[in-house]
Amino acid sequence: MSEALPQKRLRIKFTKENALRYIGHLDLHHIWQRSIRRAGLPLIYSQGFHPQPKIQIASALPLGFSSKSEVVDIWISPEAEYSLEELQKNLPEGVKISSIEEVDLHAPALQTQGDYAEYLVTLLDETPADELDLKLASLMDAESLMREKKKKKRGKVRTFDLRTLILELRRLPSEGENERIYMRFVAREGATGRPDMILKEMEVPIETTRIERTALVFK
Amino acid sequence: MLTPNQIEARLERVLLSVQKPGRYVGGEYNAIHKNWNSIKTKVALLFPDIYDLGISNVGLKILYDQINQRDDALAERAYLPWLDFEEVMRENEIPLYALESKNPLANFDIIGITIPYETLYTNTLNALDLSGIPLKTANRNEEHPLIIAGGHTGTNPEPMHAFIDAYVVGEGEEVIHDIVEEVARSKSANESRAELLFALSQITGVYVPSLYEVEYQDDGTIAVTKPTVEGVPSHIMKRIVAKLPPPPTNFIVPNIKTVHNRATVEVMRGCTRGCRFCHAGFTTRPVRERSVEEVLDAAEKAIASTGYEELSFLSLSSSDYTGIAELVEAVNERFPDEKLSISLPSLRIESVSLDLMEGLKKRRSAGFTLAPEAATERMRRIINKFITDEQLLNTAREIYQRGWTTIKLYFMIGHPSETLEDVEAIVDLSQKVLKEGRKAIGGRAKLNLSVGTFAPKPQTSFQWVSVDTFEQINAKQDLLKKKLGRGIRLSWTEPEDTMIESFLSRGDRRLSDVILSAWRNGAKFDAWGDQRRYETWMNAFTEHDLDPTFYTHRQRRVDEIFPWEHISTAVHKKFIFRDYQESLEGKIRVDCREQCFACGILPIFKDMRRDNPGKGWMCPEVKPKKIRKMKELAVEPL
What is the ipTM of this complex? Predict the structure, then answer.
């Protein structure tokens, strides 16, 4: 392999909201790629037969979730001048940058550094508060919640303990008509909890909720 | 009617239950959001198929750009939902809405539908139905949007006459402004629907079907199509622009993967080759070119404003663009970015094409497409696309030698008077091409063979001929499948698709009932092979006591009056007929840049040509008025 080109690595924190809720992880990659090109920043490409732009999104957000707390690392030419405003101008509505910082080229990949994530789940249908509290408490009180998960490839079934992924589940004080739930999960590589897992336990259809990732915290 | 907020609230509850919800939410970069309440004329531009296909339609990109440049008008976009979302929409009473503001389509003043091909007819009805708008012109009033349509089907609008208020024949860049202004004026003046339709019929290039009636002969052919209202023109001349306006460059960049997701610049319009089967070749005359400088500037702007990694230069025949060599050279200078891939579609089978592709070498793709269309000299003379086998083989050899591993050959079966021997020649020629590849690069050489079936089109030299029958098509396709042998991948058109295309493209007004019945009984997405319902179509013909073979397999009389007789593409019927006769005699007509054959374009558009002298147009120059007058004066006796 040839020697790596001189480059610098930028860490961008951003939101993913509105229409972008319905855009998947891979498509978000392309959105970043094109937005960066529009902003005139020369992206660094991987070496090899099918060079790919070096863009790493920290944690895939499931389709339909919005987020206030996404992170992406991008690699660009070291001499390139960037500004938050210029990059922001070139992003579709729904992506708002909150910060850009230069990070060490040799810092570990974002995907390996996750610790936990926080979510706000809004229930669009009316649900009695005490019923909610009961369900959440029973999940929190469980010693273990052994569940099965099908691996995508070859349909192999894997067992995991959902309870170990849950850090906190709590109904928030009512605000307006809709009940809201705060959820906090482990978000480590290979061990990630998600609100839809809890909603499934509670038999709440995902279409009747609005889910937002409010924080993604790294080690 | 639902408000945008109500629509969004309902969407939120259903979008996660459908495939690819990103199709239905808008929010793309470069989409234009104007203030709904402060804009007078609101236009919804609709492509009657799913987002993934419609978003790349260049016609709608142009109209979106043109309308949104106006301060007094806005344009938004709409596409059809895929089957799963349609079901959800109907269940939840969500009307078809525009992606920008989420307003229901019924709230717009104008719905502009592009119908580039006939298999979108049922989808067009579906779109109106999903919008809650009466399907038939006759049932709509002042409260409903004006339904206009355009695109290539405009050269025979009759099958859709009952559903479309006004059909644009020809190019949209200028006429859309006339229509917007007329609708605004009519609205301010509180005019009736009838008054508006009459006003629209006065615009060149606009056909208002409800102001005409058709009389039939006993044998079912047309006796006459004539206006029913005084002051309405008896013939509709297509609209063209004298000079191609600056192309759009602020393309909407979809957030999801779509077909042809790239920046495009149209380098020229029209084609001088005169292939007899080619609808576009006949109906997009005259040839007008953009300058290399203008093309490059547009390309630069488009890349900068979209961030696309792919750029495509559009035309019917890239190698015929006057500045093609200069363009390719300049492209490499102007776009040193190696990550940008550039494509030149529709290259001629000449080594010059190879040089051009090699000019873009860094960005080379694996495949190279050549379209000989026919494999025998006799057929090539009939269709007026003349190349020799030798030319084809030489070019193919060079393509493989220069490092492309795959060639795609495009042929058509079903040209007039074609025999099984002509089809067998396709097999022989394809095998010879692959053999060249094997000689050059061995087993890596690949050949993909795509064999379409010819469907005769209105306003072309073959508008008189029958399409092949099922039996003929099956025999020809069987022969191909059997004889082709290993190593060549064959794709073909299902005969049912060819039949549907055929009866719709040369249909008359009676087909409106057939289309309506077919749609009511479930026909939609006819262009999607797995959705096509041939039986439904046949039942619809039976229901209305019509015979599909009247439209498909009937050789037209030479003096037949066509359903599209009153629609003019400015190419004389006499010229088209002569060209058809010459086809029967196997006479070649050379590229009309070499010699003008007086097809009719120049006399009709002579003023435009005079005002646009020079190389922009491929037609011969028209002398300035002054000089002509002086000559006239000179011969006047004293």
Answer: 0.94
